[in-house]
Amino acid sequence: MKKTLLLLIAIITLSCNKKDEFDSISLSTSEKYLSANEEYQIEASSNSNITYTVEDEYHTEVSTSGLVTAKYVGETNVLLENAEDSKILKIIVEPKYTTYPEPEFEFGDTKSDIINNFGENYEEIPLDEEGNFTLLGYDNYFSKAPIILFMLDRNKKIVSYAILTYNEYLPELAGFLTERYLSYIEEDNTFYFINQLEYEDADLLLGLGAYDENFLIVQYFDLSIAPTTKKYRTSKSLTKPDTKKLIKKMYTK
Fold this sequence. Notes:
Layout: H1 2-20, E1 26-27, E2 31-35, E3 39-41, E4 44-45, E5 51-54, E6 60-62, E7 67-70, E8 74-81, E9 86-94, H2 111-118, E10 123-126, E11 133-138, E12 147-153, E13 158-166, H3 170-178, E14 182-187, E15 190-194, E16 204-210, E17 215-222, H4 229-236, H5 240-250
Organism: Wenyingzhuangia marina
Protein name: Ig-like domain (Group 2)
């Protein structure tokens, strides 16, 4: 009888200890580098089911089983949770292509900001008689993309900009853009990209097209002031006559 009672006490004690045991999540790594479209199975375990959610689905998506699929260049976090614990896995989607460095400017930055970054060796032309817009350009931007152009409003603030790359880099340029941006629409021989999964959420629109027999042009537009592509393109696009005039001036200095 005494032995039975002792055994019962031991079983009850063991059961209570198990209930008091914290159900932690074991995660093999806290950070993972991936390329666009690369997959990675999260290695994690716990005594109960783990749920997986991602902070920004533009950069990464994750399945219910923890399979991560990298989407577009950038960083986000995957949150792992069970009833008692949580862990964070940081996902960094790295670029494969470095065709040109994207300028670290904000729309609304000034002509002075541009000059402070690129220097005084630029050319500038007016785009209309009223002085509403001017075009400012540099011809020594990058080896594969020698020309960068900025459209400025009457307050000398950036409303759009463009980069010209050599035609021979088209396959690389396509990879450069598609690993960073969502392909949105093709219109009038121009391929448009956005920086979110839905047009309504995006604040940046890019247009890729042929410029001439030597160059491709990538234009960057501020979607916060451009509800539709056609409306924006009509009012603030960098047209070929404008850019050709400036480029001719640059190369005949």
